[in-house]
Write a structure and sequence with these properties.
two-stranded antiparallel sheet, mainly alpha, single chain
Length: about 210
């Protein structure tokens, strides 16, 4: 075998090995920014349709799905951790959560998950008080979700607010899918601001704690 032919075969072998290695490498995880770019338009559309702040929807999606990287998001397109409940007749996915082998809703697409999240909040009486809040008051909405029992984590509201402010998700509550002019980033809410948000929630007098979603 001549040297040029041998060199060519050797190079081709290296190329094939590299391609094989790349194919075996796991895809990179979705970042917060990528997730927001992927779903911001859906969140804004749902806000116009259901009157739920886009910032809240995006923050819940980011938190509940691990920015789209969780098992539930990847295998069931469930971005909001919504469990089956007795009225659910769609597809299901079983996994351990608060208890072993819990039933979660499974969707054909992420957008279907977003649609069901909006319907879920608007159709259940325990969340009725949320819709008496200002659409742009994401802090009151965050505390309202916690008070209504959307999640069991005692810091759920603070976690949502942190995600919203660090990623400037409040900009989407203006209804613009591609906000250009950014506002000054809000400072971390003081305890007084938190008390005011909780007071707004309590004034609605419509929240009934029934456990996690």
């Amino acid at each position: 075998m001549t040297r040029p032919v041998f060199s060519l075969i050797f190079l081709l072998s290296l190329v094939f090995q590299s391609v094989a290695l790349i194919a075996q490498m796991p895809e990179g995880k979705i970042t917060y920014n990528q997730y927001i770019q992927n779903y911001k338009e859906i969140a804004v559309r749902k806000m116009h349709e259901y009157k739920i702040p886009a910032s809240i929807t995006l923050a819940q999606g980011l938190l509940e799905s691990g920015s789209g990287n969780s098992e539930l998001a990847l295998k069931a397109n469930n971005h909001f951790g919504i469990k089956c409940h007795k009225e659910w007749t769609g597809m299901t996915y079983t996994m351990d959560d608060d208890e072993k082998n819990e039933c979660f809703r499974k969707y054909a697409s992420a957008e279907e998950s977003y649609s069901d999240h909006s319907f879920f909040l608007t159709s259940r009486p325990r969340y009725a008080g949320l819709f008496q809040l200002d659409l742009k008051d994401y802090k009151a909405w965050a505390y309202g979700l916690k008070s209504a029992g959307y999640a069991t984590n005692p810091r759920y509201a603070e976690m949502l607010i942190k995600i919203i402010e660090e990623n400037e998700l409040y900009l989407y509550d203006s209804g613009d899918q591609r906000p250009v002019a950014k506002k000054t980033k809000p400072e971390k809410p003081s305890s007084n601001e938190e008390d005011q948000a909780l007071t707004k929630v309590q004034k609605t007098n419509s929240f009934t704690f029934l456990g996690s979603c």
